[in-house]
Amino acid sequence: MKQYQSALAKPELSPMMRQYCLTHQEYDDYLLLYRLGDFYELFFDDAEIVARELELVLTGRDAGLSERVPMCGMPHHAVDNYINRLLAKGYKLAVCDQVEDPALAKGLVKREITRLITTGTQTDVSAIDKASNNWLVACYQQKNYYGLAVLELVSGQFLACQINLGLTDKTLFNELVNYQAGEYLLPCSMQNQPLAKSLEQINLNINYLPETNYQSLDKTYLPFDFKLEDLLPDKLESTQALAYGAILALLNYVLKTQHSLPSHLQKLQFYRISDYLQIDAASQANLELFTTLREKKKKGSLLWAIDQTKSAMGLRLLKQWLEKPLLDVKEIKSRQNIVQTLLANYRERQNLRDLIGQVYDIERLAGKLGNGTVLPRDLLAIKDSLELIPAFKQILASLADPNLTNLAENLQPLPEIVDLINQSIAPDCTNIIKDGGIIKPKFSAELDHLRSVKTDSQTWFDAYVQAEKDKTGIKNMKIGYSRIHGYFLEVSKLNLNLVPDYYIRRQTLVNNERFTTKELKVRENEILGAETKLYSVELELFNQVRDQVKTEIKAYQLNAQILSQLDVLQSFAEQAEQADYCCPEFVETKCLNLKAARHAVLEKLAGRANFVANDCELDADNHFILLTGPNMAGKSTYMRQIALICLLAQIGSFVPATSCQLSPVDQIFTRIGASDDLGLGKSTFMVEMQEMAYILHNMTHNSLLILDEIGRGTGTADGLSIAWAICEALNSDAALKARTLFATHYHELIKLAKQFKSIRNYHVTVAETNDSITFLHKIKAGGTDQSYGVEVAKLAGLPKSITERANSIMEELGKQIYQNKLTISKCEQPMANQVQLFSPEQAKKDELLANLQKIDINQLSPLDALHKLNDLVQATRKLNSLN
């Protein structure tokens, strides 16, 4: 039992603490932030947790009990910083605010939970990476059908899809993981299912909800005229119906945590996974799309390498496009056409880049309007951004491109909103309304009068004191103010005989007396009343302006969508020019033909002059490249760059090559590198085989396979056998003929090209000089039977004694094990015709020699010696029968 629950059972608990405990009881799994004056306080267990996590001072408070209860607090004006730190540590927070003026309260101040904050419902944009979305994802299941609903409260983006899964399909898992959501909502019925366990094992934040959340919408916090249909597409297709349950759960969770449905939620967009190139989470990591594989840094990722965006909105959209490359060639070409236009018009492109760089994050500003967290300077940012819209429209219209003209026509400058903000909000205002100076002079006559009362008061006081000095003859009279006694006239005791009868004594001090007058009291009431009213009037005026600006949320969101698209497309054009990228050509016939292709990231890191470009030719007849060569020579780099080029082409970008011709790729699978999964009890080899099994079960004839060193995690014979069998399976008559790049150190696989016309051998070239090698990084036709492992070991700095010994062992192994020519029959031929991989005669000879070496003549009797001799003769005869 928690401390507050124990305290609640005690009758002597103070009324205020009882109110706290009763409130906490409704939100037991949340930390309760309880507003007391200018602070948010936490008590009991919550106080101990927060004091420990945030290193705050833990104090105590009287609560009517025998002992003080633990307490810690945080100032209300800085609470967001503390909230963000607690969210980052995985806590959920309930904020309990005062909902009536304490000065007007009779008894306990009324308090209510005003918001619940979780990692998926966080709306403080200062705590969210500008390049990322903070998604909230809900999932619902019926048999093998799953509905998915996705929402970001910061921007209002609202998505949904429905997925039909096979028994071994990981499509849903990959889709969920790829969102990297702040929070996942799953029904309690899924808690013990393999999907939920898999998500938990990679430490995703999962919240299990009762089934009722997926069945109907809780209308407690909804306006009476709300219609769910207003958020949904005009027609809900049968293939989208199951997503409805996930949508309900998502909206119910938002209503529970926000106590309202934010007005900036966008109309729901349904999407189909089959409309996009699919890249599973492992492949995204292997290709280093968003972070590097080892250090998880942004620098060194594909996103970092190609990013030429000028706004946070554009950067987020670029990331979304990389997460979901297109399959629709028509839509891809539409993007390409805009990039071509921008590339051909340098001056206009630079002007657009300058303008985009001046635009604020309109998408998140619209979200702040909808969430009710917009600040005065946010309104100025909206106004400044809107003032740039006419310039955008003018430049886009001058380019005479139909696609850009359409974008220009949909941009909305909203001059009425610009005028309103220009007239109302002071350009040098702060974000703290209590500080004043938010509203411009002449916007409100009442506000101007209240300000004049406050600012003119000092002049009046100076004149009044001087007049009283002249009347009374008290030359050292002063005027002052105290919070207890208000404004007063201070007279020294030496001059008390000069004080007139109409002075009213307020306070007696050691050397002075303080007085007031009826006239001074009237002015005091006027000034203090003006100061109090000044804040409330200015706050009310700001709220009126904010609400008027809020009416155009949909227009801001449309502007944000257009400008972010424009930013990404100009980024493609800028990158194409700076890095000499070419425009990909999409064709219907299956192919992947590249000339002088490069790796976008390594080229940027090393410099164009230091990177060796290579070609690639794959088509329906020759769809399989078998790549051999030493480690460090560039096999993995070559394969990765092919995958990255396909991905870039299908987001509408130009690509790092002199020419590119391809048909769309529907899935990219990578099996690169390996590591143990000790948490799940899986070895390197098991992880490798599971990933390979997933690829073989889910690939299609339009997929791209990047397979590196298949079979290396086990013994040589096992690994070679598995790699050989996989190559056969991918090239048999019944195979799907997916485009495949297969890198290996098993040189025996080169012979497969004689059995399968679809296989082409390539190798990475190496220059040999004396006892050293130089990697040329050039891909050439033909296989190689050398791995140069010892030479690579030398380059790595292994001691000379070890590398020399390794060379001698390698020569000996070459004679003993691989001296017989390897020939393996096609898999469809009878096993009797199949020659063994390694020489059985040599193995028997080795065994015979080993047995001879074990014999100790001094320990043998004559009879034992005869038996041993007979055994050796029989073994020799058996060996001869094998030859």
Automatic annotation (TrEMBL):
One of its GO terms (biological process) is mismatch repair. The keyword Acyltransferase does not apply. GO terms for molecular function: ATP binding; ATP-dependent DNA damage sensor activity; damaged DNA binding; mismatched DNA binding. CDD domains: ABC_MutS1. Gene3D superfamilies: 1.10.1420.10, DNA repair protein MutS, domain I, MutS, connector domain, P-loop containing nucleotide triphosphate hydrolases. Belongs to the DNA mismatch repair MutS family. This is DNA mismatch repair protein MutS.
